[in-house]
Design brief:
37% helix, single chain, 8-stranded antiparallel beta sheet, globular, DNA-binding, alpha+beta, 794 residues
DNA sequence: CAGTGAGCGAGCTTCCGCTTGACTT
């Protein structure tokens, strides 16, 4: 039996450290927190100094039992959880739950998983910092109180299954605020003037220093340019340099993977997790840009021998973020010698990104020479400016360049042809183009994470889960949206003639952006009205200051909570008793056909439009229609609302049965002979004609025939179908998995019947009911599925 | 998904931060 037991948070870390420490040390992982507040409402004794009631979570019972046994047999137990608030608490919970003797317990910390760092830590043990633990308890208790008191208010005043919290509610608010900013944005336009010259066979572009507000002004300017001389008046050469970005933190990795590869934050994190588990990168949930001495030295070595000495620039980065706890290194490859790795294409791409970012961070600045040419126009005061860039030394640009969120109007750095002051230029054309101002862009998952990090809200381990939560609750949807068209004017001066063209462009099209839903807006407004403090962007920052005081021993944690909870709880009670129910009802106009009032509001099944008032008289009952995806009660127009009542629409009669066109949850569809056929985006559900509808129905029949792989005489209900994940069994509305090795041609009914029997689903109504319950309690759902899967294996 | 929207009342939901798997119809 080993004399020393070291406990770390992550199993991958445990494996690495065990190698450094030799045979006298056993290194085990506790898999994060082992204990948490009890699930129910008795978790915090609000009348008894907020005493927390902790429980070992079910999924941690086994590991706790194992650690208990190992710690009993060990001479010394080394608590090596991370050096931050949460890590300190993990060590404290371990010492409590494992009942560790203080005399044989050591607390150690390291910020990097390198041999010298570990050995140094072992040489410098300390005790558990109870103040830091108390700061964590305050954080935990505050979050529980806020979340579990606010959420029930929403169930009462808005609808069930909603949630609120210190982090998620502010995240939703950011998106709601941005949406309104965009909806209220005043687009204005101005004419941007670009001249194109022919210089020694090459094209050169120059822009006018000012924009014209009206077409008339732009035209007047072009008229002055007819027959004018264009002369280089001044040439200015300015050296400049560009520095590499620091190596990745969780947040910057999520941003770059989103910008460069289009990955959502959860995808990025799960790929990074794989890389970490395979020992290829350092820990992926970090807020630090720091690199270990070893890493810097090895990067320097790699750069010098592969690119040359002058490309190396060893650099220590420091984070600017106050809320950073820096328990780990920045994200970097474990070995810079691993230029390429084995793995899935996604793993390779993400690794490549991490690798290049880390190596570039240790490389020299790029040297750039900027040339600015000023061009004078005869008889005109305004001047044209042409800029060009020459890369004198590429430096870090040899491997990596960071992307930006806003690269829609990408200027592109161009070289200028050789020019001389006084030189007369040959004009090809001058164009004055109407350009519009743009509102701030909608958030992507990653840019929302960036904003949250700036506000100090949330932690690297919770960014991705928070983004998922606000989508799961229906506050926010991630979507693509078609752009709208608008007209703009372009004036062109060419060959001394001015011409005018009306052109159209698409704008405001969005890809994978976050949009608020009606519920997201209702909840945000409700919380902002009644719980201003929680919705304040600075709330987290201000409580963090208090947590820091607790950590420094200047404040007692439950006193701090008490001061917050008193007024907060009073507001909760007051709101719960007195606030009105929120349904976002809005009158949007009068139906011209019936003269009745048209409303929109949010009901049990989501937002809908209503024509006419509620009435007991059957004949006068109002008409209802659900809003379409992407429509908001806040912004829908009367015309759009009335359109909703034009469906379902009978398109015609085919094979003795009506074809109906309507819009469902998954978009526009046709229904014929009780079968559904999706209407593609290229067709308009309001206008689709009979012939086209029949074409779609027949197309669907052909693809259905291909989907059907096999049927059985014994049971017409049972079919083998070809699905997204390959062939599967369908019986009625239930589906069953086929073993991966199955050869469909050889499949007999007997085998199929056995698989169905083994999974033995209850009658379909009960399944439906069960599914609803299961979906609400994810823990139970997985448990149930596990047992089902095991049964199949037997 | 498949055209629902009254009102009542049961019993359910919910937080943030540490960790990984399990597994997709």
């Amino acid at each position: 039996m080993s004399k020393n037991l070291v406990i770390v948070e992550s199993p991958a870390k445990a494996k690495t450290i065990e190698k450094f420490l030799g045979k006298d040390f056993t290194v085990k992982s506790c898999f994060g927190h082992i204990r948490d507040l009890a699930k129910g409402d008795d978790a915090i004794d609000v009348k008894g100094n907020f005493k927390p009631n902790y429980e070992v979570s079910d999924d941690k019972k086994a590991i706790v039992a194992e650690l208990k046994k190992l710690s009993k047999d060990a001479d010394l137990v080394w608590l090596a959880s991370d050096e931050d608030r949460e890590g300190e608490a993990i060590s404290w919970h371990l010492s409590e739950v494992l009942n560790l003797d203080e005399k044989k317990t050591r607390r150690i910390v390291f910020h990097e998983i390198t041999k010298p760092a570990i050995l140094k830590a072992i040489d410098n043990p300390r005790g558990i910092d109870k103040n830091l633990v108390d700061a964590q308890q305050a954080r935990r208790v505050l979050d529980r109180l806020v979340g579990f008191e606010l959420s029930p208010v929403l169930w009462k005043k808005v609808k069930g299954n909603l949630s609120a919290g210190r982090v998620q509610s502010v995240a939703v608010r950011l998106i709601v605020d941005r949406e309104r900013e965009i909806n209220n944005f005043n687009y204005s336009s101005a004419f941007r003037v670009i001249a194109r010259f022919n210089v020694g066979g090459k094209q050169m572009e120059a822009e006018l220093g000012k924009r014209f507000e009206t077409e008339a002004e732009a035209k007047a300017f072009l008229e002055k340019c007819v027959g004018a001389n264009f002369t280089i008046k001044n040439l200015e050469v300015k050296p400049s340099e560009k520095s590499p970005a620091p190596p990745f933190t969780t947040s910057t990795l999520q941003q770059e993977a989103s910008r460069k590869m289009g990955y959502g934050v959860s995808i990025t994190m799960s790929i990074a997790q794989k890389l970490y588990e395979n020992g290829l990168i350092t820990y992926m949930r970090t807020d630090s840009v720091n690199l270990s001495e070893l890493a810097i030295a090895s990067a320097q070595n790699y750069i010098s021998s592969n690119f040359g000495e002058k490309y190396s620039r060893p650099m220590r980065y420091t984070t600017k973020n106050d809320s950073a706890q820096e328990a780990h290194e920045a994200i970097r490859p474990t070995y810079f010698e691993n230029v390429e790795i084995e793995g899935t294409p996604q793993e390779k791409r993400l690794y490549d990104l991490i690798y290049k970012r880390a190596i570039a961070s240790q490389m020299a600045k790029a040297q750039i020479e900027k040339t600015i040419a000023t061009i004078a126009i005869d008889g005109v005061t305004e001047q044209l400016v042409a800029t060009g860039e020459v890369l004198k030394f590429d430096g870090f640009l040899k491997v990596y360049l960071e992307s930006t969120d806003d690269d829609q109007e990408d200027e592109g750095s161009k070289m200028l042809p050789p020019l001389a002051v006084g030189e007369q230029l040959v004009l090809n054309q001058i164009q004055a183009t109407e350009r519009f101002t743009r509102p701030a862009p909608r958030y992507t998952e990653a840019s929302l994470v960036k904003r949250l990090e700036e506000l100090g809200i949330g932690r690297p381990s919770t960014y991705a889960p928070t983004i998922s939560t606000i989508q799961k609750r229906g506050y926010v949807v991630k979507e693509d949206r078609e752009g709208k068209e608008r007209n703009f004017v372009q004036l062109t001066l060419e060959k001394q003639v001015i011409s005018r063209e009306d052109r159209t462009e698409k704008f405001a099209s969005e890809k994978s952006k976050l949009f608020p839903s009606d519920i997201g807006m209702i909840v945000t407004d409700f919380l902002s009205k009644h719980f201003e403090q929680i919705m304040d962007f600075n709330f987290t920052a201000s409580v963090e200051e208090e947590f820091d005081k607790i950590a420094r021993g200047q404040l007692v944690w439950n006193k701090m909570i008490e001061k917050f909870y008193g007024p907060f709880h009073a507001t909760v009670t007051n709101t719960s008793e007195n606030a009105e129910r929120q349904n976002a009802e809005r009158t949007i106009g009068i139906d011209p056909e019936t003269g009745k009032t048209v409303y929109v509001k949010v009901g049990r099944y989501g937002p809908f439009a209503q024509i006419g008032d509620n009435s007991d008289d059957e004949a006068l009952k109002p008409k209802y229609a659900s809003l379409r995806a992407g429509q908001l009660t806040e912004t829908i127009t009367l015309e759009e609302a009335l359109d909703l009542f034009k469906l379902p629409r009978v398109v015609g009669n085919f094979e003795g049965k009506d074809i109906k066109a309507a819009i469902g949850r998954f978009g526009p569809y046709l229904m014929h002979d009780s079968k559904f056929i999706s209407i593609p985006k290229t067709d308009d559900v309001f206008a689709i004609e009979f012939d086209r509808a029949v074409e779609l129905i027949e197309g669907k029949r052909i693809s259905d025939a291909n989907k059907l792989l096999k049927t059985f005489e014994e049971d017409a209900e049972v079919k083998i179908l070809n699905g997204r994940w390959g062939p599967y069994i369908a019986k009625g509305r239930d589906n069953y998995r086929l073993p991966k090795t199955t050869k469909v041609e050889e499949l007999t009914y007997e085998v199929v019947a056995k698989i169905i029997e083994a999974e033995a689903k209850p009658a379909s109504k009960k399944t439906a009911a069960k599914k609803v319950v299961a979906a609400k309690t994810p823990a139970k759902k997985t448990a149930a599925k596990k047992t089902a899967a095991k049964k199949v294996k037997k």
